[in-house]
Amino acid sequence: MGMEQQRGMNLAGATLGWPMVPGVLALAASSTPVWDGRFAITFVLVLAGLFIYSLYNVITKKYKTEFHRILHEVVMLYVSSAFMLVAVWRTFGQSLWLGSFLLILVIGTTVLSFKHRQYLSKAIRNPKQYPLIGKIYKAVLIISAVLGPASYGISVALDSYFEADTMLIIFAAMLIPFAYLFIVLSFPAVAVIKPQKS
Question: In terms of residue numbers, what domain contains 38?
Answer without folding.
Answer: 3-190
